[in-house]
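Q: What does the predicted 3D structure of BZIP domain-containing protein look like?
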Amino acid sequence: MSDCDSSCTSQKKSITNNQLCEGCECSEDEGRRLKRREKNRVAAQKSRKRQTQRADLLHEVKYHCIDKEQHLLTEVLRAHEPLCPIMHCSCTSSSLQPDDMLRLSVLLFLPLPRWAE
């Protein structure tokens, strides 16, 4: 083998080694990038899960507040029914028209129902 052939061969090996090293760096970068993406994906899933849990907790608290308010209003209505002159009126509430109910409320000095305001 001549000196020229050996130098060409060594240059080719050198170029090939450099390309392999660049390929290693590329694959290392790609590996780091994939690892970072996976880590980010897991963090995003955890974040969405926490957000869902917080929303569920808020909905549960709101549900209990509304349920408690409903029970309270039901008890207030039950306590009011025996005292209510409209309930003891000869005409039933199903036969009363909204205008009649309004007039009757004004005559009896009762607070107006919400729908009449």
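A (community wiki): The structure tokens above were generated from the sequence. Residues 73 and 79 are 10 Å apart (CA to CA). The chain has a mean pLDDT of 76.
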